[in-house]
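RETRY 2/3 - previous attempt timed out on the joint model. Re-submitting the same 760-residue input unchanged.
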Amino acid sequence: MTMELIERDIPAIIRNAIEEHGAAKEALIPILSEINRKLGYIPHEAIAELKKQIQSPEDDIFVSESHLYSLASFYHMLSTKELGRHVIRFCESAPCHVMGGRELLKAITSTLEIKPGETTPDNKWSFITTSCLGVCGVGPVILVDEDIYGNVSPDQLPTILAKYD
Amino acid sequence: MTFYRSHVLVCVDPECLAKGAHDVVDALQDELIVRGLIDEVQVLETSRIGACSSGPEMMVYPEGVHYAGLMTDDIPYLVDEHFLKGRPVQKWILSGQKAVDEELAPPRQKEVRIVLRNCGQIDPENIEDYLAEDGYQALGKAICEMAPDEVIEVVKASGLRGRGGAGFSAGKKWELCRQVEDSPKYITCNADEGDPGAFMNRRVLEGDPHSVLEGMIIAGYAIGASYGYIYCRAEYPLAVSTLNIAIQQARSMGLLGEDILGSGFSFDIEVRMGAGAFVCGEETALIASIEGKRGEPRSRPPFPAVKGLWGKPTNNNNVETYANVPQIILNGAEWFSKLGTEKSKGTKTFAIAGDVKNTGLIEVPLGITLREVIFDIGGGIKDDKGYKAVQIGGPMGGTLPAEYLDRQIDYESLLQVGAMMGSGGMIVMDEETCMVDIARYFMEFTQDESCGKCVPCRVGTRRILDLLERICDGKGVDGDIERLETLCDQVRRNSLCGLGQGAPNPVISTLKHFRHEYEAHIYEKRCPAKVCRALIRYEINPEVCTGCTVCSRNCPTEAISGERRKPHTIDPEVCIRCGICMQVCNFNAISVVSE
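RETRY 2/3 succeeded.
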């Protein structure tokens, strides 16, 4: 997605999100999640735009950019950094850890040549760790974008990655 | 209404989804269309119906055949045989001809199911299924026949304690909130199940959402609240959508909303989705997050029962606690209190994970022993290795070695030995697990999840982790164990919320039960379980090595040398301990040593 397109879309995305979740302080987390889902991350422009749209002294809604940023940076599912086209979330919880998670983590970092929290230079993959995905019976587990994969062994990794372009 | 001669229920719980359940559903639909059977066979998606360990599972009715491990490629054959020719395919049938949830099968007979009783048995997206299982009868009884105080009395008398981990009496909590003179009051349901390895709440939300709604409405009636929030973690999108469907259906039947069942009592529920923060499972952090703030805890008192959501009295319980309530109201306090021990009544769900044969969910009466859970129900240790320990109570819990296997599971007896009930995660570890590495792992988790508000937790967990990393790296020095003990004590006593107070527990309990492993790492530079990379070496047994050169050809750092047909050797200076040589050796000539 080009920057131009994002800029054009941001006000509309935010307007829709506010419409859906309501113009209230308590709706900020769902709204930010929505922005994150649509754009892949929460750029600074979106924070400024959200403040502009939701701020309403008449309705007693005061929101600062720093408050919005503090929310966007607090929750793991929200990202303030631009991520790659596909995001691999690696479950780093204990059941996955004891069921071969360490080997899988090694395989991912060596295959993509990036460490957790990084994005490949071609902007295709971002690799981040996540807390328990709750499918501990089939660990180790990875979530690629919205697709969840269980019982992943290092040798299955190339097949899984090949599904995405 | 259309009539179908056969119904196929495909499990689409996250574990089956992870194995491609959606593709199987699509393939099934396509194949039925191709064969012209689409008007005769209905394909439905349902919640968990079995252990889900061998791949996508489905039930075929009216025969009640339970298939497991079917992949998309198998579908044409299945449709051909079963739906066209009427011959169930034996090789995929899981447990004979009857519709049995694997977790209720004979080897798991020590289970008693209250909370999980409907999971996998009913369609969670159809309120009529729940109604057919006595659903919402307790609600009718409570709001039409009982005064709020009577409801509280019954819950108190049942001995139900908070299933989120702390174990505070649910009835007493409700009473405290009822007594506060302020309005409006709120009900919150903690569905932010963040403990690694714990997924029982997810299954209840996905499999029997109405039991949670019913429990919350009853709680609202007892306390005098008219609005409730379910705070569900963002990692459970399926649970959120199931809950939203359930709420819609309950509203359309007049079981939620204005004037419920004509009683004059009004109550409504909304689902709030988290955005990924473990600390939001702490009740004050959860409340802050619902309010649209950073999920940071605050000091208590005042407790949420007095000042909670938007400064108003709020009762917070977890999913399992609420799910117990309808059954207690329906069957009476005495029925519930017959199960369990003197102080811990009822049942508890546990998620067993790790190196155990039968992983998955169970529900057992409190007072059962760890041995019964791990060996009788869990089937013992995988690959018949030795049992080393069980981590119980999540990342704030403790690790218990073999001598505690006959310990009863209840709130008090676990606390006495440095573990805790927690929300019910149970991670079983075999003899090849390094306990220092496990402690390091849990500290990594809590350190990462520390919200950063208070110093003891933010800085303390970091310092504990630094020490543990140093020990695992073979750089531990004399005095490190004592330093760990001091730090753990300070973090435990001075942190603001349960996360920080509990964070040192995995270290404290491994130090207590496995101190010798710490000592081996520090003083002998040895990892007894042969896990910590800095302390192990790979060795080739010259008697067994045939000199086939497979290992040296696969070694990424050229650490292996030797002539063809002669025993090879590994240079420990060059070796990076990746273990590839051991994997590729066809003669089992390579082993890990730590000395």
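The two ends of chain A are 14 Å apart (CA to CA). Closing ticket.
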